[in-house]
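Data deposition worksheet. Section B asks for the primary sequence of the deposited chain exactly as it was used as input, without tags or linkers unless they were present during the calculation. Section C holds the resulting structure in token form. Section D is free text for depositor observations; keep each observation to a single sentence. Incomplete worksheets are returned to the depositor.
Section A, Depositor: J.P.
Section B:
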Amino acid sequence: MSEWLSPSLNDLNDVVATAEGQLLLCSPYISKPGLNIIAGALPSTVNRIEIWTKLDPHDWLTGATDPEGLLDFIEQVQPQLESVSMRQSPRLHAKIVASDGPQAMAGSANITGGGFGGNLEVVRRVSGSELGQLRTFIGSLRPSLTQVALDQFREFVSQCAAKIDSQEALLALIREEMPPPSLGPEPLLSYGEFLGFLDDFDGSLANDILRIARNLDGNNNTGKVKQAFYGVQRFLQEYSQHRDAVARLPDTEWFDVGNSPLDSDWRRFLQDYSTEVNTAHGYSIPILTGYLTPSSGGFRTGGGGGDNELKRVWPFVGRFMAA
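Section C:
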């Protein structure tokens, strides 16, 4: 039976879990928290995913959407699928999650953490005879969107990621004009300043972080470095007894928190602050844990992940906070 509801991530999970072979994700703005739920709920029977969205650098620059997170999602689920296709339109405003299963939803909610867990939204969870009507409507909209090859999308993400310094400069200007409330026992140190701090190091590990953070390697993993930086910083704010030890870590070696005395406190931190989001700085614990595998305290399965970026930043975040 169809119903109106104020959607939650559980509702998104439930609808995706009913998909049988094909899934449509239609949302102008998309971010990792929503995609993490979809990846976790995706039935093994699903073999085709179609994505409709907007591709506007302005939306990325202001943090409204996360194309890097979407690309990461595609690369995570693609090995188990026959195909992933994409369409885009600068005029897209519809928000739909639909499949060939017995449920779908359409309404105001973007596939973001806010859309399914913070904003005041309304969606229609569709079943029964209304499903046919919705599928017909979807078919009528499809020709209005332009097909985007995944290589084209990857290039778009790469161009955005290479402008991370510009994005950080914009965030810094906004914070200067309108300082946000501090989160935690002390104000957050900015990611842009951290990258400038790394510029003063000559070692290969610092250079590796900068190469990834500025997308000089073309691998589109900039967000993994940023989320790791803020995650470690917040951890050291809440568990300040570890600051000196982390600041003394060798700046030539990766640090694996999962095989260290900090492991239990790190996992406790990720659990206690599992919903923490700071839009002013562009970081999110749900995004971080979606990048990390269980060995580093996250829940990502499959290939990729952000464990290596986390291991790289530990000693430098400690030094940066002590400077």
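Section D:
The mean pLDDT is 94.
Residues 171 and 177 are 10 Å apart (CA to CA).
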